[in-house]
From TrEMBL:
The organism's place on the tree of life at top rank: Bacteria
Official protein name in the record: YmaF family protein
Amino acid sequence: MYNQNYCKDQKHVHELTGSTKIFNECGDCHNHRFCTVTGEAIYHNEHDHFHEVKFRTDFSDEHFHEFCGKTSGAIDVGNGKHVHFIKDFTEEEDNHKHKFQAATLIDSPIDFECK
């Protein structure tokens, strides 16, 4: 059944997009791209939070990689906005994994006052 309070209870999310580091061994040179939306904010104290992240990369070199992890805490970028950083490795596939690092986009990017 539809929960009427869902929209009021929902916490913010962020867009996350990036590319993995190039894998280059034994003549196999490739990387992957990813694009996702984080999970809702998870507050671990009254002043900070993180987001769970799960994605599957694009299909390149006959395979893809998956990732399941979390972002850093909030990084203030001014005007009441913030981003999150993530630096990790994808899961192993085709006998290798890829390192990646990315920053989320700000939450509610068009939520500002017009003056």
